[in-house]
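As a warm-up, study this chain.
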Amino acid sequence: MEIKVNKEKCTGCRICVDVCPVGAISVDDNGRAQIDERCNLCRLCVKECPENAIEILGEEKKKAETDLTQYKGICFLQNTNTVNFHMFHMNSAEFH
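Now compare it with the structure written out below.
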């Protein structure tokens, strides 16, 4: 995967510079964002860019929201001391 700044869309607002946790984004001489090799593909800049000028290449676009209606009434509990999960179904009031 590769991250890319669309220089045509970038307005130089510097939001991406501010949100980058590893300092991988700077502004070039033309006032446009540029991303260096320190980028760890955390996607914060992609999420926060108001112009949608930053994208990750080689990654399929995901649905904006996941439909959670199929999980209505189900709760998963995890014991923090182990890796065991327990499923609790609200309608049957049983642990599985």
